């Protein structure tokens, strides 16, 4: 039997004409799934969250330089006893602040002390033009809804703080900081005093290093340089 294309050459011509059309259709078909799979804002946030959960983001995850927690090992039992006198006394000493932060990490609540330190640093801003960027950073990191390091604040305090950061003053975070301070003093501090970490310091034992955890990146010394408790 003869080749039908030889008997009807127009069929071959038609087929060749359809090739560009077929290619175009295939191209459109390939492009559609790509458009559909283009990540939206929610997907991007999810990817960012997964990225921030990688362990390498936490190896130096502390309020000071990596290894600062080890300084608590040199704390004498006499010094540790003083931390039990009051929460203020604990936070006023660098070693006490380090030890308490380490304890909060074991309870997955270190954002509270990080927020408190951020507020202390904020109040020490040397000029008014430093306040706005710092205020926005603190608010977006610790206070706004679904913030990566959100602290436990009531709606009224959050709203008052949100309105204040439009034209921030040094006292913008006072109400929020006071709330978080009271929470730590009444809730976390008593548990710290009965923890193995603190009891070990009372007996002159060096505290074991807390294991690294997968969670959102916390603030480091580069974010808030010179954060020290306000003793005045």
UniProtKB/TrEMBL annotation:
Name the Pfam families on file. Answer: RGS
Task: Enumerate the Gene Ontology biological process terms.
Answer: negative regulation of signal transduction
**Organism domain of life:** Eukaryota
Q: Is tRNA-binding a UniProt keyword of this protein?
A: no
Q: Which UniProt keywords apply?
A: Signal transduction inhibitor
Spans annotated as Disordered:
212-232
What range(s) does the RGS domain occupy?
Answer: 86-202
The name under which this protein is listed is RGS18 protein
* Protein source organism: Cisticola juncidis
